[in-house]
Amino acid sequence: MTPESNLTGQDTTRRHIEHFVADLDETPLQATDKVKEDSAPSSLWGEAWKNLRRQPLFIISAIMILAVVVVSLFPGLFSQIDPSNEACQLSNSDGGPASGHPLGFTQQGCDVYARVIFGTRSSVTVGLFTTIGVVLFGGIVGALAGYYGGWADALLARLTDIFFALPLILGAIVMMQLPVFRANRTVWTLVLILIVFGWPQIARITRGAVIEVRNADFVVAARSLGVSRFRSLLRHVLPNSLAPIIVVATISLGTFIVAESTLSFLGIGLPPSVMSWGNDIQAAQASLRSNPMPLLYPAIALSITVLSFIMLGDALRDALDPKARKR
Amino acid sequence: MATYILKRFLQLIPVFLGATLLVYFLVFSLPGDPIAALFGDKPVNEAVAAKLRAQYNLDQPFIIQYLLYLKSIFTFDLGQDFSGRPIAAVLGEVFPVTARLAVMALIFEAVFGIAFGLIAGLRKGKFFDGTVLIASLIVIGIPIFVLGFILQFFIGVQLGWAKPTVSAAATVQDLILPAIVLGLASFAYVLRLTRTSVIENMNADYVRTATAKGLSRFRVVNVHILRNSLIPVVTFLGADLGTLMGGAIVTEGIFNVPGVGNRLYRAVLSGEGPTVVSIVTVLVLIYCLSNLLVDLLYAWLDPRIRYDS
Questions:
Q1: Fewest C-beta atoms under 10 Å: which of A57, A131, A139, A208?
Q2: Would you place residue A326 in the very low, low, confident or very high pLDDT band (cuts 50, 70, 90)?
Q3: Is the ipTM beyond the 0.90 threshold?
Protein backbone atom coordinates (compact mmCIF):
# COMPACT_ATOMS: atom_id res chain seq x y z
CA MET A 1 0.00 0.00 0.00
CA THR A 2 1.53 3.36 -1.02
CA PRO A 3 1.24 6.49 1.08
CA GLU A 4 -0.62 8.12 -1.77
CA SER A 5 -3.48 5.66 -1.88
CA ASN A 6 -3.76 5.89 1.89
CA LEU A 7 -4.18 9.69 1.68
CA THR A 8 -6.81 9.62 -1.01
CA GLY A 9 -8.73 6.98 0.92
CA GLN A 10 -8.79 9.23 3.97
CA ASP A 11 -9.83 12.19 1.90
CA THR A 12 -12.95 10.58 0.50
CA THR A 13 -14.19 9.60 3.96
CA ARG A 14 -13.50 13.09 5.29
CA ARG A 15 -15.51 14.66 2.53
CA HIS A 16 -18.45 12.38 3.28
CA ILE A 17 -18.75 13.00 7.01
CA GLU A 18 -17.87 16.70 7.04
CA HIS A 19 -16.55 17.10 10.57
CA PHE A 20 -16.69 20.67 11.77
CA VAL A 21 -15.35 19.89 15.22
CA ALA A 22 -12.75 17.49 16.45
CA ASP A 23 -13.69 13.84 16.58
CA LEU A 24 -15.61 12.99 19.71
CA ASP A 25 -12.95 10.64 21.03
CA GLU A 26 -10.27 13.31 20.66
CA THR A 27 -11.86 15.91 22.94
CA PRO A 28 -11.79 15.88 26.74
CA LEU A 29 -15.52 16.66 26.69
CA GLN A 30 -16.50 13.39 25.04
CA ALA A 31 -18.98 12.49 27.75
CA THR A 32 -20.93 15.71 27.34
CA ASP A 33 -20.53 15.79 23.58
CA LYS A 34 -21.85 12.32 23.06
CA VAL A 35 -24.95 13.07 21.08
CA LYS A 36 -26.68 10.34 19.19
CA GLU A 37 -26.52 11.82 15.72
CA ASP A 38 -28.93 9.33 14.21
CA SER A 39 -31.66 9.72 16.84
CA ALA A 40 -34.90 11.38 15.76
CA PRO A 41 -35.34 14.96 16.97
CA SER A 42 -37.43 14.88 20.12
CA SER A 43 -40.75 16.70 19.94
CA LEU A 44 -42.86 18.27 22.64
CA TRP A 45 -45.05 15.16 22.58
CA GLY A 46 -42.13 12.76 22.72
CA GLU A 47 -40.68 14.62 25.68
CA ALA A 48 -44.09 14.72 27.34
CA TRP A 49 -44.58 10.98 26.89
CA LYS A 50 -41.16 10.25 28.36
CA ASN A 51 -42.02 12.49 31.30
CA LEU A 52 -45.49 11.02 31.76
CA ARG A 53 -44.34 7.41 31.86
CA ARG A 54 -42.38 8.16 35.00
CA GLN A 55 -45.21 10.01 36.78
CA PRO A 56 -47.18 7.91 39.28
CA LEU A 57 -50.06 10.41 39.07
CA PHE A 58 -50.39 9.74 35.34
CA ILE A 59 -50.14 5.97 35.64
CA ILE A 60 -52.73 5.79 38.41
CA SER A 61 -55.21 8.11 36.68
CA ALA A 62 -54.76 6.39 33.30
CA ILE A 63 -55.46 2.97 34.81
CA MET A 64 -58.52 4.28 36.67
CA ILE A 65 -59.90 5.95 33.52
CA LEU A 66 -59.32 2.78 31.52
CA ALA A 67 -61.22 0.81 34.17
CA VAL A 68 -64.13 3.27 34.15
CA VAL A 69 -64.34 3.17 30.35
CA VAL A 70 -64.33 -0.64 30.29
CA VAL A 71 -67.09 -0.74 32.93
CA SER A 72 -69.18 1.75 30.97
CA LEU A 73 -68.76 -0.21 27.72
CA PHE A 74 -69.37 -3.69 29.15
CA PRO A 75 -71.28 -3.36 32.44
CA GLY A 76 -72.59 -6.91 31.98
CA LEU A 77 -69.11 -8.28 32.61
CA PHE A 78 -69.13 -6.94 36.14
CA SER A 79 -72.67 -7.62 37.28
CA GLN A 80 -75.29 -10.14 36.13
CA ILE A 81 -78.06 -8.60 38.24
CA ASP A 82 -80.71 -6.52 36.46
CA PRO A 83 -80.75 -3.29 38.49
CA SER A 84 -83.58 -1.51 36.61
CA ASN A 85 -86.39 -0.20 38.78
CA GLU A 86 -88.87 -2.84 37.55
CA ALA A 87 -86.63 -5.76 38.50
CA CYS A 88 -86.04 -4.66 42.09
CA GLN A 89 -87.72 -6.49 44.97
CA LEU A 90 -89.32 -4.16 47.50
CA SER A 91 -88.90 -6.92 50.09
CA ASN A 92 -85.16 -6.14 49.96
CA SER A 93 -85.75 -2.45 50.79
CA ASP A 94 -82.79 -0.87 52.64
CA GLY A 95 -81.30 -4.33 53.22
CA GLY A 96 -77.66 -4.65 54.23
CA PRO A 97 -74.98 -6.58 52.34
CA ALA A 98 -75.99 -10.17 51.50
CA SER A 99 -74.48 -13.05 49.56
CA GLY A 100 -74.17 -11.91 45.92
CA HIS A 101 -75.11 -8.36 46.88
CA PRO A 102 -71.92 -6.98 48.45
CA LEU A 103 -73.07 -3.38 48.85
CA GLY A 104 -76.62 -3.97 50.07
CA PHE A 105 -79.89 -2.61 48.69
CA THR A 106 -81.52 0.76 48.05
CA GLN A 107 -84.85 1.86 49.44
CA GLN A 108 -86.48 0.52 46.28
CA GLY A 109 -84.80 -2.82 46.93
CA CYS A 110 -82.32 -2.51 44.05
CA ASP A 111 -78.82 -3.96 44.28
CA VAL A 112 -76.49 -1.02 45.00
CA TYR A 113 -73.43 -2.63 43.39
CA ALA A 114 -75.25 -3.38 40.13
CA ARG A 115 -76.70 0.14 40.01
CA VAL A 116 -73.27 1.69 40.49
CA ILE A 117 -71.87 -0.51 37.68
CA PHE A 118 -74.72 0.18 35.26
CA GLY A 119 -74.83 3.90 36.13
CA THR A 120 -71.29 4.41 34.80
CA ARG A 121 -72.37 4.61 31.18
CA SER A 122 -74.48 7.79 31.38
CA SER A 123 -71.77 9.69 33.23
CA VAL A 124 -69.01 8.66 30.82
CA THR A 125 -71.19 9.29 27.74
CA VAL A 126 -72.20 12.78 28.86
CA GLY A 127 -68.65 13.68 29.88
CA LEU A 128 -67.01 12.38 26.73
CA PHE A 129 -69.42 13.74 24.12
CA THR A 130 -69.83 17.10 25.83
CA THR A 131 -66.05 17.47 25.84
CA ILE A 132 -65.83 16.56 22.14
CA GLY A 133 -68.55 19.08 21.29
CA VAL A 134 -67.05 21.80 23.46
CA VAL A 135 -63.56 21.32 22.02
CA LEU A 136 -64.91 21.45 18.45
CA PHE A 137 -67.13 24.49 18.93
CA GLY A 138 -65.03 26.40 21.46
CA GLY A 139 -61.88 25.50 19.55
CA ILE A 140 -63.24 26.86 16.26
CA VAL A 141 -64.47 30.10 17.86
CA GLY A 142 -61.24 30.60 19.81
CA ALA A 143 -58.96 29.75 16.87
CA LEU A 144 -60.76 32.10 14.47
CA ALA A 145 -60.81 34.92 17.05
CA GLY A 146 -57.15 34.52 17.95
CA TYR A 147 -55.83 33.94 14.42
CA TYR A 148 -57.69 36.59 12.45
CA GLY A 149 -57.84 39.24 15.22
CA GLY A 150 -59.43 42.61 14.46
CA TRP A 151 -63.21 42.86 14.36
CA ALA A 152 -63.69 39.08 14.25
CA ASP A 153 -61.79 38.81 17.52
CA ALA A 154 -63.72 41.69 19.13
CA LEU A 155 -67.05 40.15 18.12
CA LEU A 156 -66.22 36.57 19.14
CA ALA A 157 -64.58 37.69 22.39
CA ARG A 158 -67.75 39.57 23.39
CA LEU A 159 -69.84 36.52 22.48
CA THR A 160 -67.57 34.38 24.68
CA ASP A 161 -67.90 36.92 27.51
CA ILE A 162 -71.70 36.79 27.28
CA PHE A 163 -71.79 33.02 27.72
CA PHE A 164 -69.07 33.19 30.35
CA ALA A 165 -71.25 35.46 32.49
CA LEU A 166 -73.77 32.61 32.85
CA PRO A 167 -72.42 29.84 35.08
CA LEU A 168 -72.68 26.31 33.63
CA ILE A 169 -75.15 24.93 36.17
CA LEU A 170 -77.26 28.10 36.20
CA GLY A 171 -77.61 28.19 32.43
CA ALA A 172 -78.30 24.45 32.27
CA ILE A 173 -81.03 24.72 34.94
CA VAL A 174 -82.75 27.55 33.09
CA MET A 175 -82.55 25.64 29.80
CA MET A 176 -83.60 22.26 31.19
CA GLN A 177 -86.88 23.68 32.47
CA LEU A 178 -87.93 24.73 28.96
CA PRO A 179 -90.84 22.52 27.91
CA VAL A 180 -88.94 21.31 24.79
CA PHE A 181 -86.13 19.87 26.83
CA ARG A 182 -88.23 18.83 29.80
CA ALA A 183 -90.34 16.68 27.50
CA ASN A 184 -87.43 14.60 26.20
CA ARG A 185 -84.70 14.40 28.77
CA THR A 186 -82.02 12.09 27.42
CA VAL A 187 -78.26 11.86 27.60
CA TRP A 188 -78.10 13.74 24.28
CA THR A 189 -80.26 16.66 25.46
CA LEU A 190 -77.90 17.04 28.40
CA VAL A 191 -74.86 16.90 26.11
CA LEU A 192 -76.36 19.63 23.92
CA ILE A 193 -77.17 21.91 26.85
CA LEU A 194 -73.80 21.44 28.51
CA ILE A 195 -72.10 22.27 25.19
CA VAL A 196 -74.15 25.49 24.89
CA PHE A 197 -72.92 26.73 28.27
CA GLY A 198 -69.55 24.94 28.48
CA TRP A 199 -67.69 26.13 25.36
CA PRO A 200 -66.45 29.60 26.44
CA GLN A 201 -63.59 28.28 28.58
CA ILE A 202 -62.08 26.26 25.74
CA ALA A 203 -62.63 29.21 23.39
CA ARG A 204 -60.60 31.49 25.67
CA ILE A 205 -57.80 28.98 26.11
CA THR A 206 -57.59 28.30 22.36
CA ARG A 207 -57.60 32.00 21.55
CA GLY A 208 -54.72 32.63 23.93
CA ALA A 209 -52.71 29.67 22.64
CA VAL A 210 -53.26 30.64 18.98
CA ILE A 211 -52.25 34.27 19.61
CA GLU A 212 -49.04 33.02 21.19
CA VAL A 213 -48.17 30.86 18.18
CA ARG A 214 -49.52 32.82 15.21
CA ASN A 215 -46.47 35.08 14.85
CA ALA A 216 -43.88 32.37 15.48
CA ASP A 217 -41.02 32.11 12.97
CA PHE A 218 -42.19 28.82 11.51
CA VAL A 219 -45.62 30.26 10.76
CA VAL A 220 -44.07 33.33 9.10
CA ALA A 221 -41.81 30.94 7.11
CA ALA A 222 -44.78 28.87 5.97
CA ARG A 223 -46.67 31.98 4.93
CA SER A 224 -43.64 33.32 3.00
CA LEU A 225 -43.42 30.02 1.16
CA GLY A 226 -46.91 30.69 -0.13
CA VAL A 227 -49.03 28.61 2.22
CA SER A 228 -52.48 30.16 2.42
CA ARG A 229 -53.62 31.81 5.66
CA PHE A 230 -56.27 29.21 6.42
CA ARG A 231 -53.95 26.32 5.61
CA SER A 232 -51.22 27.68 7.85
CA LEU A 233 -53.79 27.96 10.65
CA LEU A 234 -54.72 24.29 10.19
CA ARG A 235 -51.26 22.85 9.55
CA HIS A 236 -48.94 25.03 11.61
CA VAL A 237 -50.73 27.12 14.21
CA LEU A 238 -53.32 24.70 15.59
CA PRO A 239 -51.08 21.65 16.06
CA ASN A 240 -48.69 23.84 18.05
CA SER A 241 -51.39 25.28 20.31
CA LEU A 242 -52.95 21.92 21.19
CA ALA A 243 -51.20 21.37 24.54
CA PRO A 244 -53.18 23.78 26.77
CA ILE A 245 -56.42 22.79 25.01
CA ILE A 246 -55.86 19.11 25.82
CA VAL A 247 -55.11 19.88 29.47
CA VAL A 248 -58.23 22.02 29.94
CA ALA A 249 -60.41 19.57 28.00
CA THR A 250 -59.32 16.68 30.24
CA ILE A 251 -60.17 18.60 33.40
CA SER A 252 -63.44 19.85 31.85
CA LEU A 253 -64.48 16.25 31.17
CA GLY A 254 -64.58 15.75 34.93
CA THR A 255 -66.53 18.99 35.35
CA PHE A 256 -69.15 17.88 32.82
CA ILE A 257 -69.62 14.56 34.62
CA VAL A 258 -70.21 16.54 37.82
CA ALA A 259 -72.65 18.83 35.97
CA GLU A 260 -74.65 15.85 34.70
CA SER A 261 -74.90 14.27 38.14
CA THR A 262 -75.71 17.64 39.73
CA LEU A 263 -78.57 18.22 37.30
CA SER A 264 -79.86 14.68 37.78
CA PHE A 265 -79.51 15.17 41.52
CA LEU A 266 -81.60 18.36 41.30
CA GLY A 267 -84.25 16.32 39.49
CA ILE A 268 -83.92 18.14 36.15
CA GLY A 269 -81.21 16.07 34.49
CA LEU A 270 -81.75 12.50 33.34
CA PRO A 271 -85.22 11.05 34.08
CA PRO A 272 -85.40 8.59 37.00
CA SER A 273 -85.80 5.66 34.59
CA VAL A 274 -82.23 6.19 33.34
CA MET A 275 -79.59 4.71 35.58
CA SER A 276 -77.14 7.40 36.65
CA TRP A 277 -75.09 8.13 39.74
CA GLY A 278 -76.79 11.53 40.14
CA ASN A 279 -80.22 9.91 40.13
CA ASP A 280 -79.12 7.27 42.64
CA ILE A 281 -77.71 9.89 45.00
CA GLN A 282 -80.93 11.88 44.68
CA ALA A 283 -83.03 8.78 45.42
CA ALA A 284 -80.90 7.79 48.42
CA GLN A 285 -80.98 11.29 49.88
CA ALA A 286 -84.35 10.74 51.61
CA SER A 287 -83.12 7.80 53.68
CA LEU A 288 -79.63 9.21 54.26
CA ARG A 289 -79.90 9.09 58.05
CA SER A 290 -81.17 5.52 58.29
CA ASN A 291 -79.28 3.93 55.39
CA PRO A 292 -76.39 6.08 54.06
CA MET A 293 -74.77 3.31 51.98
CA PRO A 294 -76.85 3.68 48.77
CA LEU A 295 -75.78 7.35 48.71
CA LEU A 296 -72.18 6.69 49.63
CA TYR A 297 -71.27 4.15 46.94
CA PRO A 298 -72.46 6.05 43.84
CA ALA A 299 -70.89 9.15 45.39
CA ILE A 300 -67.58 7.33 45.73
CA ALA A 301 -67.77 6.04 42.14
CA LEU A 302 -68.57 9.54 40.90
CA SER A 303 -65.77 11.14 42.89
CA ILE A 304 -63.18 8.58 41.78
CA THR A 305 -64.13 9.03 38.12
CA VAL A 306 -63.99 12.82 38.30
CA LEU A 307 -60.81 12.68 40.32
CA SER A 308 -59.04 10.52 37.76
CA PHE A 309 -59.78 12.98 34.96
CA ILE A 310 -58.60 15.92 37.08
CA MET A 311 -55.45 13.99 38.03
CA LEU A 312 -54.81 13.14 34.37
CA GLY A 313 -55.20 16.81 33.45
CA ASP A 314 -52.79 17.76 36.21
CA ALA A 315 -50.21 15.22 35.04
CA LEU A 316 -50.60 16.35 31.42
CA ARG A 317 -50.14 19.98 32.42
CA ASP A 318 -46.88 19.14 34.15
CA ALA A 319 -45.65 17.11 31.19
CA LEU A 320 -46.67 19.56 28.47
CA ASP A 321 -45.47 22.73 30.14
CA PRO A 322 -41.67 22.76 29.89
CA LYS A 323 -41.52 26.04 31.81
CA ALA A 324 -43.12 24.47 34.87
CA ARG A 325 -40.92 21.37 34.64
CA LYS A 326 -37.69 23.30 35.14
CA ARG A 327 -38.71 24.46 38.59
CA MET B 1 -55.83 54.48 34.09
CA ALA B 2 -59.02 56.54 33.76
CA THR B 3 -59.33 55.64 30.09
CA TYR B 4 -58.76 52.00 30.99
CA ILE B 5 -61.56 52.03 33.56
CA LEU B 6 -63.87 53.73 31.08
CA LYS B 7 -62.96 51.24 28.36
CA ARG B 8 -63.55 48.26 30.64
CA PHE B 9 -66.84 49.74 31.76
CA LEU B 10 -68.00 50.22 28.18
CA GLN B 11 -67.07 46.61 27.43
CA LEU B 12 -69.38 45.52 30.22
CA ILE B 13 -72.43 46.96 28.51
CA PRO B 14 -72.62 44.54 25.55
CA VAL B 15 -71.88 41.60 27.87
CA PHE B 16 -74.65 42.62 30.25
CA LEU B 17 -77.15 43.25 27.43
CA GLY B 18 -76.20 40.03 25.65
CA ALA B 19 -76.43 37.83 28.73
CA THR B 20 -79.80 39.23 29.82
CA LEU B 21 -81.12 39.00 26.26
CA LEU B 22 -79.99 35.36 26.13
CA VAL B 23 -81.71 34.48 29.40
CA TYR B 24 -84.82 36.43 28.46
CA PHE B 25 -84.95 34.59 25.15
CA LEU B 26 -84.45 31.20 26.81
CA VAL B 27 -87.16 31.80 29.39
CA PHE B 28 -89.84 33.43 27.28
CA SER B 29 -89.37 32.60 23.63
CA LEU B 30 -88.56 28.97 23.10
CA PRO B 31 -91.53 26.68 22.42
CA GLY B 32 -93.82 26.14 25.40
CA ASP B 33 -96.02 28.63 27.17
CA PRO B 34 -95.02 29.62 30.74
CA ILE B 35 -98.52 30.99 31.38
CA ALA B 36 -100.19 27.77 30.26
CA ALA B 37 -97.74 25.84 32.44
CA LEU B 38 -98.99 27.81 35.45
CA PHE B 39 -102.34 26.09 35.19
CA GLY B 40 -100.71 22.72 35.55
CA ASP B 41 -103.08 19.88 34.70
CA LYS B 42 -106.16 22.11 34.89
CA PRO B 43 -107.68 23.52 31.68
CA VAL B 44 -106.32 26.97 30.79
CA ASN B 45 -108.67 29.80 31.70
CA GLU B 46 -108.27 32.05 28.63
CA ALA B 47 -109.38 35.25 30.37
CA VAL B 48 -106.93 34.84 33.23
CA ALA B 49 -104.16 33.78 30.86
CA ALA B 50 -104.73 36.85 28.67
CA LYS B 51 -104.63 39.14 31.71
CA LEU B 52 -101.38 37.54 32.92
CA ARG B 53 -99.87 37.82 29.44
CA ALA B 54 -100.71 41.53 29.33
CA GLN B 55 -99.29 42.01 32.82
CA TYR B 56 -95.93 40.51 31.84
CA ASN B 57 -95.99 42.05 28.35
CA LEU B 58 -96.02 38.56 26.87
CA ASP B 59 -98.56 39.68 24.26
CA GLN B 60 -95.97 42.03 22.74
CA PRO B 61 -93.36 41.11 20.10
CA PHE B 62 -90.20 39.65 21.65
CA ILE B 63 -87.91 42.64 21.21
CA ILE B 64 -90.50 45.03 22.73
CA GLN B 65 -90.87 42.63 25.66
CA TYR B 66 -87.13 42.72 26.20
CA LEU B 67 -86.90 46.50 25.96
CA LEU B 68 -89.78 46.90 28.42
CA TYR B 69 -87.95 44.51 30.72
CA LEU B 70 -84.74 46.55 30.49
CA LYS B 71 -86.75 49.67 31.29
CA SER B 72 -88.20 47.97 34.35
CA ILE B 73 -84.69 47.02 35.55
CA PHE B 74 -83.36 50.55 35.30
CA THR B 75 -86.40 52.00 37.05
CA PHE B 76 -86.16 49.28 39.76
CA ASP B 77 -89.78 48.40 39.05
CA LEU B 78 -89.42 44.67 38.51
CA GLY B 79 -93.13 43.89 38.70
CA GLN B 80 -94.63 41.02 40.67
CA ASP B 81 -93.94 37.32 40.77
CA PHE B 82 -96.74 34.88 39.97
CA SER B 83 -97.96 34.84 43.56
CA GLY B 84 -98.42 38.61 43.51
CA ARG B 85 -95.42 39.72 45.60
CA PRO B 86 -93.19 42.48 44.26
CA ILE B 87 -90.07 40.86 42.79
CA ALA B 88 -87.89 43.65 44.19
CA ALA B 89 -89.03 42.66 47.70
CA VAL B 90 -88.25 38.98 47.02
CA LEU B 91 -84.76 39.93 45.81
CA GLY B 92 -84.25 42.13 48.88
CA GLU B 93 -85.08 39.14 51.04
CA VAL B 94 -82.92 36.47 49.42
CA PHE B 95 -79.84 38.39 48.27
CA PRO B 96 -78.56 39.40 51.74
CA VAL B 97 -78.66 35.75 52.83
CA THR B 98 -76.65 34.52 49.84
CA ALA B 99 -74.29 37.48 50.10
CA ARG B 100 -73.60 36.55 53.73
CA LEU B 101 -73.06 32.90 52.74
CA ALA B 102 -70.74 33.83 49.85
CA VAL B 103 -68.67 36.29 51.92
CA MET B 104 -68.29 33.68 54.69
CA ALA B 105 -67.18 31.10 52.12
CA LEU B 106 -64.76 33.64 50.68
CA ILE B 107 -63.23 34.40 54.09
CA PHE B 108 -62.88 30.66 54.76
CA GLU B 109 -61.16 29.89 51.47
CA ALA B 110 -58.93 32.98 51.69
CA VAL B 111 -57.67 32.40 55.24
CA PHE B 112 -57.13 28.65 55.00
CA GLY B 113 -56.16 28.54 51.33
CA ILE B 114 -53.44 31.17 51.70
CA ALA B 115 -52.13 29.71 54.98
CA PHE B 116 -51.88 26.13 53.69
CA GLY B 117 -50.60 27.27 50.30
CA LEU B 118 -47.86 29.37 51.88
CA ILE B 119 -46.67 26.55 54.14
CA ALA B 120 -46.79 24.04 51.28
CA GLY B 121 -44.90 26.38 48.97
CA LEU B 122 -42.18 27.09 51.54
CA ARG B 123 -41.74 23.35 52.08
CA LYS B 124 -41.88 22.37 48.44
CA GLY B 125 -41.38 18.65 47.90
CA LYS B 126 -41.64 17.79 51.60
CA PHE B 127 -44.24 15.57 53.22
CA PHE B 128 -46.65 18.40 54.11
CA ASP B 129 -46.54 19.72 50.54
CA GLY B 130 -47.29 16.33 49.00
CA THR B 131 -50.12 15.58 51.39
CA VAL B 132 -51.75 18.97 50.87
CA LEU B 133 -51.44 18.70 47.08
CA ILE B 134 -53.14 15.30 46.96
CA ALA B 135 -55.80 16.38 49.47
CA SER B 136 -56.60 19.46 47.39
CA LEU B 137 -56.95 17.32 44.24
CA ILE B 138 -59.40 15.08 46.08
CA VAL B 139 -61.41 18.08 47.29
CA ILE B 140 -61.59 19.42 43.73
CA GLY B 141 -62.62 15.97 42.47
CA ILE B 142 -65.54 15.42 44.83
CA PRO B 143 -68.75 17.09 43.59
CA ILE B 144 -70.11 19.77 45.87
CA PHE B 145 -73.37 17.95 46.62
CA VAL B 146 -71.50 14.82 47.70
CA LEU B 147 -69.25 16.92 49.95
CA GLY B 148 -72.34 18.67 51.28
CA PHE B 149 -74.04 15.41 52.21
CA ILE B 150 -70.94 13.88 53.74
CA LEU B 151 -70.25 16.93 55.93
CA GLN B 152 -73.93 17.31 56.79
CA PHE B 153 -74.14 13.66 57.78
CA PHE B 154 -70.91 13.37 59.77
CA ILE B 155 -70.44 16.84 61.26
CA GLY B 156 -74.07 17.91 61.48
CA VAL B 157 -75.87 14.66 62.32
CA GLN B 158 -73.35 12.19 63.76
CA LEU B 159 -71.04 14.52 65.68
CA GLY B 160 -73.51 17.37 66.21
CA TRP B 161 -70.80 20.04 65.93
CA ALA B 162 -72.86 22.28 63.68
CA LYS B 163 -76.50 22.59 62.73
CA PRO B 164 -77.28 20.29 59.78
CA THR B 165 -79.93 22.68 58.42
CA VAL B 166 -80.34 26.42 58.47
CA SER B 167 -83.12 28.31 60.27
CA ALA B 168 -85.29 30.87 58.49
CA ALA B 169 -83.21 33.72 59.91
CA ALA B 170 -79.98 32.22 58.44
CA THR B 171 -77.67 33.64 61.10
CA VAL B 172 -73.89 33.59 60.77
CA GLN B 173 -73.74 30.61 63.12
CA ASP B 174 -76.22 28.65 61.00
CA LEU B 175 -74.25 29.33 57.86
CA ILE B 176 -70.84 28.08 59.02
CA LEU B 177 -71.21 24.54 57.65
CA PRO B 178 -72.82 25.57 54.33
CA ALA B 179 -70.15 28.25 53.87
CA ILE B 180 -67.38 25.67 54.33
CA VAL B 181 -69.03 23.35 51.80
CA LEU B 182 -69.52 26.19 49.32
CA GLY B 183 -65.94 27.39 49.74
CA LEU B 184 -64.15 24.01 49.75
CA ALA B 185 -63.51 23.67 46.02
CA SER B 186 -62.29 27.25 45.74
CA PHE B 187 -60.22 26.68 48.87
CA ALA B 188 -58.29 24.00 46.98
CA TYR B 189 -57.75 26.37 44.04
CA VAL B 190 -56.58 29.19 46.32
CA LEU B 191 -54.19 26.79 48.02
CA ARG B 192 -52.66 25.61 44.73
CA LEU B 193 -52.46 29.12 43.34
CA THR B 194 -50.73 30.45 46.47
CA ARG B 195 -48.33 27.51 46.49
CA THR B 196 -47.28 27.96 42.83
CA SER B 197 -46.93 31.69 43.30
CA VAL B 198 -44.85 31.32 46.48
CA ILE B 199 -42.53 28.82 44.79
CA GLU B 200 -42.08 31.21 41.88
CA ASN B 201 -41.30 34.16 44.15
CA MET B 202 -38.97 32.28 46.49
CA ASN B 203 -36.30 32.27 43.78
CA ALA B 204 -36.75 35.94 42.89
CA ASP B 205 -33.78 38.29 43.12
CA TYR B 206 -35.40 40.59 45.64
CA VAL B 207 -35.96 37.69 48.03
CA ARG B 208 -32.30 36.72 47.81
CA THR B 209 -31.35 40.36 48.38
CA ALA B 210 -33.63 40.60 51.41
CA THR B 211 -32.11 37.45 52.90
CA ALA B 212 -28.59 38.66 52.13
CA LYS B 213 -29.34 41.98 53.87
CA GLY B 214 -29.85 39.93 57.01
CA LEU B 215 -33.60 40.36 57.35
CA SER B 216 -35.29 37.84 59.59
CA ARG B 217 -36.90 34.82 57.96
CA PHE B 218 -40.27 36.00 59.29
CA ARG B 219 -39.94 39.36 57.56
CA VAL B 220 -38.71 37.87 54.30
CA VAL B 221 -41.61 35.43 54.17
CA ASN B 222 -44.33 37.85 55.22
CA VAL B 223 -43.28 41.02 53.48
CA HIS B 224 -41.27 39.92 50.48
CA ILE B 225 -42.62 36.52 49.49
CA LEU B 226 -46.22 36.51 50.67
CA ARG B 227 -47.22 40.00 49.56
CA ASN B 228 -45.94 39.47 46.05
CA SER B 229 -47.45 36.00 45.86
CA LEU B 230 -50.89 37.29 46.76
CA ILE B 231 -51.44 39.26 43.54
CA PRO B 232 -52.90 36.36 41.49
CA VAL B 233 -54.68 35.00 44.58
CA VAL B 234 -56.51 38.24 45.30
CA THR B 235 -57.69 38.47 41.72
CA PHE B 236 -58.96 34.91 41.86
CA LEU B 237 -60.84 35.65 45.08
CA GLY B 238 -62.45 38.74 43.56
CA ALA B 239 -63.72 36.83 40.54
CA ASP B 240 -64.83 33.98 42.79
CA LEU B 241 -67.33 36.14 44.68
CA GLY B 242 -69.57 36.31 41.61
CA THR B 243 -69.15 32.58 40.98
CA LEU B 244 -70.00 31.72 44.60
CA MET B 245 -73.20 33.77 44.50
CA GLY B 246 -74.36 32.07 41.32
CA GLY B 247 -73.05 28.63 42.31
CA ALA B 248 -74.83 28.43 45.64
CA ILE B 249 -77.88 26.62 44.21
CA VAL B 250 -76.78 23.14 45.25
CA THR B 251 -75.38 24.13 48.65
CA GLU B 252 -78.48 26.13 49.50
CA GLY B 253 -80.65 23.21 48.46
CA ILE B 254 -78.85 20.70 50.72
CA PHE B 255 -78.80 22.92 53.81
CA ASN B 256 -82.14 24.54 53.11
CA VAL B 257 -80.69 28.05 53.10
CA PRO B 258 -83.38 30.62 52.21
CA GLY B 259 -81.17 32.38 49.63
CA VAL B 260 -80.96 33.25 45.95
CA GLY B 261 -80.21 29.74 44.71
CA ASN B 262 -83.11 28.21 46.55
CA ARG B 263 -85.54 30.86 45.31
CA LEU B 264 -84.19 30.60 41.77
CA TYR B 265 -84.53 26.83 41.77
CA ARG B 266 -88.13 27.01 42.94
CA ALA B 267 -88.87 29.71 40.36
CA VAL B 268 -87.37 27.53 37.61
CA LEU B 269 -89.38 24.46 38.65
CA SER B 270 -92.67 26.38 38.82
CA GLY B 271 -91.93 28.24 35.58
CA GLU B 272 -91.95 31.74 37.11
CA GLY B 273 -90.22 33.44 34.18
CA PRO B 274 -90.09 37.01 35.52
CA THR B 275 -88.52 35.92 38.83
CA VAL B 276 -85.96 33.72 37.04
CA VAL B 277 -84.95 36.51 34.68
CA SER B 278 -84.70 39.07 37.50
CA ILE B 279 -82.51 36.88 39.68
CA VAL B 280 -80.24 35.85 36.81
CA THR B 281 -79.92 39.50 35.74
CA VAL B 282 -78.73 40.52 39.19
CA LEU B 283 -76.30 37.57 39.25
CA VAL B 284 -74.89 38.52 35.84
CA LEU B 285 -74.51 42.11 37.04
CA ILE B 286 -72.64 40.97 40.15
CA TYR B 287 -70.42 38.74 38.01
CA CYS B 288 -69.59 41.57 35.58
CA LEU B 289 -68.89 44.10 38.35
CA SER B 290 -66.72 41.71 40.36
CA ASN B 291 -64.67 41.03 37.23
CA LEU B 292 -64.25 44.75 36.64
CA LEU B 293 -63.21 45.16 40.25
CA VAL B 294 -60.63 42.39 39.81
CA ASP B 295 -59.07 44.12 36.82
CA LEU B 296 -58.79 47.39 38.73
CA LEU B 297 -57.45 45.61 41.81
CA TYR B 298 -54.83 43.95 39.66
CA ALA B 299 -53.59 47.26 38.34
CA TRP B 300 -53.54 48.73 41.84
CA LEU B 301 -51.73 45.77 43.43
CA ASP B 302 -49.11 45.36 40.76
CA PRO B 303 -47.73 48.71 39.59
CA ARG B 304 -45.69 46.90 36.94
CA ILE B 305 -48.91 46.43 34.99
CA ARG B 306 -49.72 49.42 32.83
CA TYR B 307 -52.91 49.68 30.87
CA ASP B 308 -52.08 52.72 28.77
CA SER B 309 -51.20 50.96 25.52
A1: A208
A2: very low
A3: no
